[in-house]
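Tutorial, part two.
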Amino acid sequence: MKKGKKIVIISLVLSILSMSLIACQSSSKSKNENQSMSSKQQSEIVEETTKEAKAEESSNAETSDQEITIGILQFAQHSSLDNCREGFLQGLADQGFVEGENLIIDYQNSGADMALAAQIAENFVNKKYDMIMAIATPAAMHAYNAALDSDIPVVYTAISDPIISGLANEDGSSAGNITGTSDALPVEAQLKMIREIMPEAKTIGIMYTTSEANSESTIQIYEELAPKYDFELETIGIQTSADIPLAADNILTKVDCLCNLTDNTVVNSLPTIIDKAFAKNIPIFGSEVEQVSIGCLASEGIDYIALGQETGAMASLVLKGEAKAAEIPFRTIDESYLYLNTEAAEKLGIEIPEDMLNRAQEIFDTISHD
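Running the prediction step on this input gives:
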């Protein structure tokens, strides 16, 4: 073979070997790069997953520690409604919602002023609170109307008749994004108790606010049951607290005793009515314990602290997302208790039967508003 051809062949062989080597190196480099990319991607995925887990954990922590804001609208300032509010806060605390820790309370009292109650309710809605809690019928109705176009749930308490008030349907289900508790009076137990203390009495008088639907519905129950215990019923309606002194003077000339409802305007002026009744030597029978403590002779009433606690438990279901307000029918506490005031009995010259003294839940020997 000629020298020139040998050189060409060798050159060709070297070129082929060189190309093969380059290809192998390229393949190895690509494989290493792929392995490197795979490792990097895995690292990025792990890092991203960790970030997401931490974010979720942080979010969960924020949710559990998040402060809930509840606006409490109380229609008037008197002890039974105060007890409802106290019980409500206790009921929430029992379920982990504690004021000052994870709960903010904005408490507002309208002082039995309808216009102010409406204004407070609108303000709560405008501030987009997590919930509105309304104490007494006028407060609940204003809160419900104010929150209609929002997603703010309303929880109420101390409503004698949620159905008559338009807050619940005939079957007890909620009329909207609202639920709560009723303080329906144990009317028959009250009538039986009055007859036991006053066996000769003939006429019971009731004062009520004409704008309170609950009062009118309760009077209907009294009208149905009074004849069963040989009582006649005398009623007088008022519009504002300014009407009470004259109305009290009027009705006290016609009755053997007065029987008080949970009518907010009347209860707010109860000390005035009690003083007038004592002057006429006519007893007043209250509708709950606090009215007895300030001078009513006796009452078959419910425990308003317990009523508030039940309301707080219902509210917690909504706050925890376990149920919507619209899904919870209103609840009523049926059990009543006997309360007596022995100083009032002494001032009126009335002797309370011994067996009543023995079964009373609580006996007051002073009149606190004196």
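Confidence is low (pLDDT under 50) at residues 1-40, 49-64. In part three we will examine how such features are distributed along the chain.
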